[in-house]
Design a protein that fits this description.
The protein is α+β, with helices and mostly antiparallel strands. It is built from ten helices and ten strands. The protein has a six-stranded mixed beta sheet with strand order 6-8-5-9-7-10, sandwiched between helices. A four-stranded mixed beta sheet has the order 1-4-2-3, with helices on one face. Helix 3 links the parallel strand 2 and strand 3. The longest helix has 18 residues. It is globular. 39% of the residues are buried.
Length: 328
């Protein structure tokens, strides 16, 4: 069925013209003509399941491009799979659409989903469509991993290294630029950081390095809060200089805008979708080599120590370890 951008929305148009292309013609989807579907995994693999919802005015704004909304919905879920050492296979999609959404918006939204599915090698299994006062999108993602490769969030040991992938704070600065035009920086930097907020990319390092990782989580609710999940109130973390967590360029921007941005704000902010993980020191070379092979920046930022809490490089306890909470 060929769509026109002037067409009125209906379930039939949304499914047949916009969503069926996302099934990749997989047998278990029944071409979206059944009320359910099935998922087949290779022998000896376990199914990893995660789910996330994103809501207008909380996780994105009405004026955000539909491509950005699709990108965020995929990113939050792929990041969770990566943190468990899993690769994506398929997902279900639930769309609660309000009166503002039209064919053009959904066309751009599903085209970005199609692009991301090709990039990360997964497909749409099915889902549900309904009307709502607020635009809300949710997805259940299914990944695969061998039992021995499934990562836990809090199985670290004293003496383990603490690592992060990529740089933190890029999404935070993009959000600040979009909501506070008084931040001083070049047009080139402004565009880069805005895109970091609108189009975050999940770090899929977990599935390729799971054999060396002892515990992992993605940085979605703030570095401090997510590191605390790994510590689980049983051990402590000693960090190297906090400057190592962000890029040199971002450090320079902070120094020019000291009254508007701080490293502490960045480390309490989420939406980076990098990984923080721990590993035995004996695996440093293997982890660094995997990072180079996969073109992923890795930084050894500290170590797991006895005690409780998070400490800086002078062994001063870091207080006010805030992180994002939907109900705060």
């Amino acid at each position: 069925m060929k769509i026109k951008l002037s067409d009125q929305l209906s379930e039939k148009i949304i499914i047949n013209s916009l969503l069926k292309k996302l099934s990749f013609n997989k047998k278990g989807t029944f071409n979206f003509e059944n009320d359910a579907a099935y998922l087949s995994l290779a022998k000896n693999y376990k199914t990893i399941v995660t789910t996330d919802s994103i809501t207008e005015n909380i996780d994105f704004f009405y004026n955000d491009p539909p491509e950005s909304v699709a990108h965020k919905l995929v990113c939050v879920n792929l990041s969770d799979l990566s943190a468990m050492g899993s690769a994506p296979v398929a997902y279900t999609l639930n769309l609660s659409l309000n009166a503002k959404i039209n064919i053009n918006w959904l066309n751009r939204f599903t085209n970005r989903l199609f692009k991301l599915q090709k990039q990360y090698n997964f497909y749409l299994l099915g889902g549900d469509i309904s009307k709502s006062y607020e635009l809300t999108l949710s997805a259940n993602f299914f990944g695969k991993a061998k039992l021995k490769d499934i990562l836990s969030q809090n199985k670290c040991s004293i003496g383990n290294d603490i690592w992060i992938t990529g740089n933190l704070g890029n999404s935070y600065l993009g959000y600040k630029i979009l909501t506070n035009s008084k931040i001083k920086l070049s047009n080139k930097d402004a565009e880069y950081y805005k895109n970091s907020y609108l189009y975050p990319n999940p770090c899929m390092f977990g599935s390729c390095a799971s054999m060396f990782i002892s515990a992992a989580t993605d940085i979605s609710d703030g570095f401090y809060g997510d590191l605390n999940k790994i510590l689980n109130n049983k051990v402590a973390a000693k960090l190297n200089k906090k400057d190592f967590l962000i890029s040199k360029n971002l450090r320079n921007i902070i120094s020019t805008n000291k009254s508007k941005i701080s490293i502490e704000d960045i480390l309490s902010w989420g939406d980076d979708y990098q990984l923080v993980f721990t590993a035995n020191k004996k695996f440093r070379n293997q982890i660094n080599n995997l990072g180079k092979k996969n073109n992923i920046k890795l930084t050894n930022i500290g170590a797991i120590i006895k005690g409780k809490g998070i400490y800086d490089d002078s062994m001063n306890v870091i207080k006010n370890l805030s992180s994002y909470d939907h109900f705060s």
